Amino acid sequence: MIVVGIDGSRAALEAAAWAAREADLRGVPLRVANAIPAWAASGTAQGRYAKIAAWMRDGADDVLTTAVGRVRAEAPEVPVDTAILAGDPRPALIEASAGADLLVVGNHGLGGFRGLLLGSVAHGVAGRAPCDVVVVREPSAPPRGEVVAGIDGSAACARVLDFAFAEAALLGAGLRVVHAYRPLDAGRGLAPVPGDFDDEQTQVRMVAEALAGRREPYPDLRVTEEVVRRHPVEALLQASQGADLLVVGSHGHGEFSGLLLGSVTQALLHHATVPVAVVRAGR
Fold first, then answer.
1. What are 69-105's pLDDT values in tens digits?
2. Fewer beta carbons under 10 A from the terminal one: N or C of the chain?
3. What string of DSSP letters covers 203-257?
Protein backbone atom coordinates (compact mmCIF):
# COMPACT_ATOMS: atom_id res chain seq x y z
CA MET A 1 0.00 0.00 0.00
CA ILE A 2 1.01 3.60 -0.65
CA VAL A 3 -0.09 6.38 1.72
CA VAL A 4 -0.27 9.97 0.50
CA GLY A 5 -0.74 12.87 2.89
CA ILE A 6 -2.78 15.78 1.55
CA ASP A 7 -3.98 19.13 2.89
CA GLY A 8 -5.62 20.85 -0.07
CA SER A 9 -2.49 22.63 -1.30
CA ARG A 10 -1.38 22.45 -4.92
CA ALA A 11 1.74 20.56 -3.91
CA ALA A 12 -0.40 18.00 -2.07
CA LEU A 13 -2.56 17.45 -5.15
CA GLU A 14 0.59 16.86 -7.18
CA ALA A 15 1.66 14.38 -4.52
CA ALA A 16 -1.71 12.62 -4.84
CA ALA A 17 -1.32 12.43 -8.62
CA TRP A 18 2.24 11.08 -8.31
CA ALA A 19 1.14 8.52 -5.72
CA ALA A 20 -1.75 7.41 -7.94
CA ARG A 21 0.56 6.74 -10.88
CA GLU A 22 3.01 4.92 -8.62
CA ALA A 23 0.28 2.75 -7.08
CA ASP A 24 -0.92 1.90 -10.58
CA LEU A 25 2.58 0.86 -11.66
CA ARG A 26 3.15 -1.21 -8.53
CA GLY A 27 -0.32 -2.74 -8.53
CA VAL A 28 -1.02 -1.74 -4.92
CA PRO A 29 -3.86 0.18 -3.23
CA LEU A 30 -3.62 3.83 -2.28
CA ARG A 31 -4.73 5.53 0.92
CA VAL A 32 -5.35 9.29 0.84
CA ALA A 33 -5.02 10.83 4.29
CA ASN A 34 -5.72 14.23 5.80
CA ALA A 35 -4.99 15.21 9.41
CA ILE A 36 -7.07 17.48 11.63
CA PRO A 37 -6.77 18.24 15.37
CA ALA A 38 -7.49 15.24 17.57
CA TRP A 39 -10.31 16.97 19.45
CA ALA A 40 -12.06 17.69 16.13
CA ALA A 41 -11.52 14.22 14.72
CA SER A 42 -12.89 12.43 17.78
CA GLY A 43 -16.43 13.75 17.44
CA THR A 44 -16.68 14.24 21.20
CA ALA A 45 -16.50 18.05 21.29
CA GLN A 46 -19.49 19.78 22.88
CA GLY A 47 -21.18 23.16 22.67
CA ARG A 48 -19.82 25.65 20.18
CA TYR A 49 -16.72 23.48 19.77
CA ALA A 50 -18.93 20.72 18.36
CA LYS A 51 -19.85 23.01 15.45
CA ILE A 52 -16.20 23.89 14.86
CA ALA A 53 -15.25 20.22 14.95
CA ALA A 54 -18.00 19.35 12.46
CA TRP A 55 -16.80 22.17 10.19
CA MET A 56 -13.25 20.79 10.34
CA ARG A 57 -14.42 17.27 9.52
CA ASP A 58 -16.50 18.57 6.62
CA GLY A 59 -13.47 20.47 5.38
CA ALA A 60 -11.34 17.33 5.59
CA ASP A 61 -13.99 15.42 3.63
CA ASP A 62 -13.92 18.11 0.92
CA VAL A 63 -10.12 18.00 0.74
CA LEU A 64 -10.17 14.21 0.49
CA THR A 65 -12.88 14.25 -2.18
CA THR A 66 -10.85 16.67 -4.31
CA ALA A 67 -7.72 14.57 -3.92
CA VAL A 68 -9.56 11.34 -4.80
CA GLY A 69 -10.86 13.07 -7.92
CA ARG A 70 -7.27 13.82 -8.92
CA VAL A 71 -6.30 10.21 -8.17
CA ARG A 72 -9.14 8.88 -10.33
CA ALA A 73 -8.10 11.15 -13.19
CA GLU A 74 -4.54 9.81 -13.06
CA ALA A 75 -5.24 6.13 -12.37
CA PRO A 76 -8.89 5.09 -12.58
CA GLU A 77 -8.24 1.43 -11.73
CA VAL A 78 -6.26 1.96 -8.51
CA PRO A 79 -8.11 0.85 -5.36
CA VAL A 80 -8.28 3.93 -3.14
CA ASP A 81 -9.63 4.70 0.30
CA THR A 82 -9.50 7.76 2.52
CA ALA A 83 -8.65 8.46 6.13
CA ILE A 84 -9.06 11.43 8.45
CA LEU A 85 -6.13 11.29 10.85
CA ALA A 86 -6.19 12.74 14.35
CA GLY A 87 -3.52 15.16 15.55
CA ASP A 88 -0.39 16.78 14.20
CA PRO A 89 0.07 15.59 10.60
CA ARG A 90 3.69 14.56 11.13
CA PRO A 91 3.20 11.87 13.81
CA ALA A 92 -0.19 11.02 12.33
CA LEU A 93 1.27 10.27 8.90
CA ILE A 94 4.20 8.40 10.44
CA GLU A 95 1.77 6.17 12.32
CA ALA A 96 -0.47 5.76 9.27
CA SER A 97 2.47 4.63 7.14
CA ALA A 98 3.44 1.74 9.42
CA GLY A 99 3.43 -1.29 7.16
CA ALA A 100 3.12 0.80 3.98
CA ASP A 101 5.48 0.45 1.04
CA LEU A 102 5.76 4.19 0.56
CA LEU A 103 4.67 7.51 2.08
CA VAL A 104 4.19 10.39 -0.36
CA VAL A 105 3.84 14.07 0.58
CA GLY A 106 4.04 17.43 -1.15
CA ASN A 107 7.09 19.56 -0.54
CA HIS A 108 5.04 22.38 0.96
CA GLY A 109 1.57 22.59 2.47
CA LEU A 110 -0.94 25.30 3.25
CA GLY A 111 0.48 26.10 6.67
CA GLY A 112 4.09 26.84 5.73
CA PHE A 113 5.75 30.24 5.88
CA ARG A 114 6.12 31.99 2.55
CA GLY A 115 9.59 31.54 1.10
CA LEU A 116 10.39 28.23 2.78
CA LEU A 117 11.57 25.64 0.26
CA LEU A 118 10.48 22.65 2.33
CA GLY A 119 7.49 22.44 4.63
CA SER A 120 7.65 21.13 8.18
CA VAL A 121 5.51 18.08 7.39
CA ALA A 122 7.72 16.96 4.50
CA HIS A 123 10.86 17.50 6.59
CA GLY A 124 9.38 15.76 9.62
CA VAL A 125 8.18 12.59 7.91
CA ALA A 126 11.24 12.20 5.66
CA GLY A 127 13.43 11.68 8.70
CA ARG A 128 11.09 9.59 10.82
CA ALA A 129 8.71 7.51 8.72
CA PRO A 130 9.08 3.72 9.01
CA CYS A 131 8.97 3.35 5.22
CA ASP A 132 10.56 5.07 2.23
CA VAL A 133 9.30 8.60 1.59
CA VAL A 134 8.83 10.54 -1.64
CA VAL A 135 8.59 14.33 -1.49
CA VAL A 136 6.85 15.73 -4.59
CA ARG A 137 7.10 19.21 -6.08
CA GLU A 138 4.92 20.83 -8.71
CA PRO A 139 6.54 19.90 -12.05
CA SER A 140 8.20 22.67 -14.01
CA ALA A 141 8.56 20.63 -17.21
CA PRO A 142 7.86 17.10 -18.50
CA PRO A 143 10.43 14.61 -17.14
CA ARG A 144 13.16 13.36 -19.47
CA GLY A 145 12.70 9.66 -18.75
CA GLU A 146 15.51 9.05 -16.29
CA VAL A 147 15.84 8.15 -12.61
CA VAL A 148 18.92 9.50 -10.81
CA ALA A 149 20.40 7.65 -7.83
CA GLY A 150 23.01 9.24 -5.57
CA ILE A 151 25.42 6.83 -3.86
CA ASP A 152 28.49 7.32 -1.67
CA GLY A 153 29.71 3.85 -0.80
CA SER A 154 27.95 3.74 2.56
CA ALA A 155 25.87 0.82 3.77
CA ALA A 156 22.71 2.57 2.56
CA CYS A 157 23.79 2.31 -1.08
CA ALA A 158 22.39 -1.19 -1.52
CA ARG A 159 18.83 -0.12 -0.71
CA VAL A 160 19.15 3.09 -2.72
CA LEU A 161 20.18 1.08 -5.77
CA ASP A 162 17.50 -1.55 -5.21
CA PHE A 163 14.85 1.18 -5.09
CA ALA A 164 16.28 3.08 -8.07
CA PHE A 165 16.61 0.03 -10.33
CA ALA A 166 13.07 -1.11 -9.56
CA GLU A 167 11.66 2.39 -10.04
CA ALA A 168 13.43 2.95 -13.36
CA ALA A 169 12.13 -0.40 -14.60
CA LEU A 170 8.57 0.47 -13.53
CA LEU A 171 8.73 3.82 -15.29
CA GLY A 172 10.42 2.46 -18.41
CA ALA A 173 13.12 5.07 -17.82
CA GLY A 174 16.89 5.01 -17.82
CA LEU A 175 18.94 5.03 -14.64
CA ARG A 176 21.83 7.37 -13.90
CA VAL A 177 23.97 6.38 -10.91
CA VAL A 178 25.92 9.38 -9.61
CA HIS A 179 28.80 9.25 -7.15
CA ALA A 180 30.36 12.60 -6.25
CA TYR A 181 33.50 12.82 -4.17
CA ARG A 182 36.14 15.26 -3.04
CA PRO A 183 39.88 14.48 -2.95
CA LEU A 184 40.84 12.76 0.31
CA ASP A 185 42.99 15.62 1.58
CA ALA A 186 41.06 18.53 0.04
CA GLY A 187 40.92 21.13 2.79
CA ARG A 188 39.97 18.65 5.51
CA GLY A 189 43.16 18.68 7.54
CA LEU A 190 44.15 15.16 6.50
CA ALA A 191 47.68 14.03 5.78
CA PRO A 192 48.51 14.05 2.05
CA VAL A 193 47.73 10.76 0.34
CA PRO A 194 50.59 8.77 -1.21
CA GLY A 195 51.69 9.98 -4.60
CA ASP A 196 50.82 6.69 -6.31
CA PHE A 197 47.25 6.62 -4.92
CA ASP A 198 44.67 7.01 -7.70
CA ASP A 199 41.65 8.49 -5.95
CA GLU A 200 39.50 8.59 -9.08
CA GLN A 201 40.05 4.94 -9.92
CA THR A 202 39.24 4.02 -6.33
CA GLN A 203 35.89 5.83 -6.62
CA VAL A 204 35.15 4.28 -10.02
CA ARG A 205 35.89 0.83 -8.60
CA MET A 206 33.55 1.48 -5.66
CA VAL A 207 30.69 2.29 -8.03
CA ALA A 208 31.42 -0.81 -10.14
CA GLU A 209 31.36 -2.96 -7.02
CA ALA A 210 28.09 -1.39 -5.85
CA LEU A 211 26.50 -2.16 -9.22
CA ALA A 212 27.90 -5.68 -9.50
CA GLY A 213 25.11 -8.14 -10.22
CA ARG A 214 22.35 -5.53 -10.24
CA ARG A 215 21.95 -5.25 -14.01
CA GLU A 216 21.12 -8.92 -14.58
CA PRO A 217 17.48 -8.73 -13.39
CA TYR A 218 16.99 -5.68 -15.66
CA PRO A 219 18.62 -6.58 -18.99
CA ASP A 220 16.74 -3.89 -20.93
CA LEU A 221 17.45 -1.08 -18.48
CA ARG A 222 19.88 1.59 -19.69
CA VAL A 223 22.29 2.36 -16.84
CA THR A 224 24.73 5.27 -16.90
CA GLU A 225 27.52 5.60 -14.34
CA GLU A 226 28.76 9.07 -13.40
CA VAL A 227 31.72 9.60 -11.08
CA VAL A 228 32.55 13.27 -10.52
CA ARG A 229 34.95 15.18 -8.29
CA ARG A 230 32.50 17.65 -6.83
CA HIS A 231 30.39 18.32 -3.78
CA PRO A 232 27.55 15.75 -3.81
CA VAL A 233 24.77 18.31 -3.40
CA GLU A 234 25.95 20.31 -6.41
CA ALA A 235 26.49 17.18 -8.50
CA LEU A 236 23.11 15.64 -7.71
CA LEU A 237 21.19 18.87 -8.21
CA GLN A 238 22.71 19.23 -11.65
CA ALA A 239 22.32 15.57 -12.61
CA SER A 240 18.68 15.45 -11.52
CA GLN A 241 17.44 18.48 -13.44
CA GLY A 242 14.50 17.28 -15.50
CA ALA A 243 14.68 13.73 -14.12
CA ASP A 244 11.62 11.68 -13.20
CA LEU A 245 12.95 11.04 -9.70
CA LEU A 246 16.02 11.56 -7.53
CA VAL A 247 16.76 8.68 -5.14
CA VAL A 248 19.00 9.11 -2.09
CA GLY A 249 19.57 7.46 1.27
CA SER A 250 18.46 9.00 4.53
CA HIS A 251 22.10 9.01 5.68
CA GLY A 252 25.51 8.61 4.14
CA HIS A 253 29.14 8.55 5.13
CA GLY A 254 30.25 11.11 7.67
CA GLU A 255 26.86 11.88 9.22
CA PHE A 256 26.61 12.30 12.96
CA SER A 257 24.93 9.49 14.84
CA GLY A 258 21.40 10.35 15.85
CA LEU A 259 20.62 12.76 13.01
CA LEU A 260 17.25 12.02 11.43
CA LEU A 261 18.47 13.06 7.99
CA GLY A 262 21.94 13.49 6.58
CA SER A 263 23.07 16.95 5.50
CA VAL A 264 23.20 16.04 1.79
CA THR A 265 19.68 14.61 1.86
CA GLN A 266 18.36 17.67 3.69
CA ALA A 267 19.91 20.00 1.13
CA LEU A 268 18.47 17.99 -1.76
CA LEU A 269 14.99 18.01 -0.21
CA HIS A 270 15.19 21.79 0.00
CA HIS A 271 16.63 22.52 -3.42
CA ALA A 272 15.89 19.68 -5.86
CA THR A 273 13.40 20.57 -8.60
CA VAL A 274 12.12 16.99 -9.04
CA PRO A 275 10.49 14.43 -6.73
CA VAL A 276 12.97 13.08 -4.17
CA ALA A 277 12.78 9.56 -2.76
CA VAL A 278 14.41 9.16 0.66
CA VAL A 279 15.22 5.49 1.13
CA ARG A 280 15.42 4.23 4.67
CA ALA A 281 18.40 2.10 5.63
CA GLY A 282 18.02 -1.31 7.21
CA ARG A 283 14.40 -2.02 6.34
1. 999 999 999 999 999 999 999 999 999 999 999 999 9
2. C
3. HHHHHHHHHTTTSTT-TT--EEEEEEES-HHHHHHHHTTT-SEEEEES--TTPPT
Q: Could you tell me if 17 and 106 are in contact, meaning their C-beta atoms sit under 8 angstroms apart?
A: no
Grouping H, G, I as helix, E, B as strand and the rest as coil, residue 21 is helix
Angle in degrees, CA 214, 244, 227, rounded to 5: 50
Q: Are the C-beta atoms of residues 118 and 269 closer than 8 Å to each other?
A: yes
From the list 149, 135, 165, the residue with the least C-alpha distance to 235 is 149
**β pairing state of 174-181 and 146-150:** parallel
The whole-number pLDDT of residue 258 equals 43
Question: Is the full-model pTM beyond 0.85?
Answer: yes
Instruction: Write the pLDDT tens digit of every residue in 205-236.
Output: 999 999 999 999 999 999 999 999 999 999 99
